[in-house]
Design brief:
Elements: H1 2-7, E1 9-12, E2 15-17, H2 22-35
Antiparallel strand pairs: 1-2
């Protein structure tokens, strides 16, 4: 959680989201691969190739963050 909070927004429980550069993404995956137990832990990344493909719909409480981390 500490590693993910450095680059992403903590949304809920084990859910994080944010926009990061390709280099930051590779660095983040490298950091996480060193600390997870690959026998029991799972991390799923959803990579969106462009802003044209991105659509977000929210029901209920909206997030309060407004900045994008790069």
């Amino acid at each position: 959680m500490k590693v993910l909070r450095q680059k992403l927004f903590h949304i809920h429980n084990s859910v994080f989201e944010g926009e990061i550069s390709e280099k930051s993404f590779q660095d983040l995956k490298g950091q996480l691969s060193k600390i997870i137990n690959e026998e029991s832990d799972k991390i799923i990344f959803y990579v969106i190739p462009s802003h044209k493909c991105l659509r977000q719909e929210i029901l209920g409480v909206k997030s309060t963050y407004t900045t994008i981390i790069s």
